[in-house]
Hints:
alpha/beta, Rossmann fold, 5-stranded parallel β-sheet, 12 helices, 60% helix
Amino acid sequence: MELRLAIVDDDITIQKILARIITEAELGTVAVECGDGLEAEKILQNSQVDIALIDMLLPGQDGVELIKILRAQGMNTSFIMISQVKNEPMITRAYESGIEFFIHKPINALEVVSVINRVKESRKLRQFMSLIHQATSHYSAPATEPRQTSEAKYKAAIYRTFSDLGIIGETGANDIFLMTELIGMNQRHTSETSYQLNELYGQLSQKQSLDAKTIEQRIRRAIAKALQNLANLGAEDYYNEKFQNYSTSLFDFKEVRQEMSFINGKSNYHGKINVKKFIEGIIFAAKHTN
């Protein structure tokens, strides 16, 4: 089903440029074009768009407030902020309002296409995580591809992600990979579509003849290291591609921000990790790697 998009910007030229890029790149249908924050609030409440590109500075109400209001209403829309602002506190405020990515002015067609495609992948990830406890088909190798080749590609994709996150040398990284294999195996050979982390730690314990608590600590240490490395990337360059790719797909962005605050000496507390979100994000990314 083709995605429906909205463009909210008070510059009619920007509206037309974005609409043309979306149409030519076949990213979806532009269902809404609007230039006022208050007007956009009313329209978007009833438009059921999948992705909304919203300018930060709008007449009526700014883009951040608009997004906060719409998200508070439980909309299933993904928000992209459009802005020429490069002030980090303002960018942080925008991310905390619930946006997924930034598109920077002046508009660059390649960036627009890349960001919208990443948001589309993020939406697929959310759907996958919702269905992971209801279906097993996501874990089956394609029928037309030899199983060995499929598994090799799957492993390579996961370890490439580990490399991007700077944890490929961590002992816990191998434990995480083994856990993804167990999840797939359990889903393929049993009727149970949900899983408990404690059960997986126990299975890994038997497989490796190690204490389950030790395995859990190694996995948590590796994920915490990944969070730290990612936060360092974001602190140096908010627009780093790896930072934007992984900060929302593998972690809660608020916790990434918390880790960045710790790194910058603005907080005494590290960001928190979610083992299940990290592992399901890793699985999803590997399954959708070309």
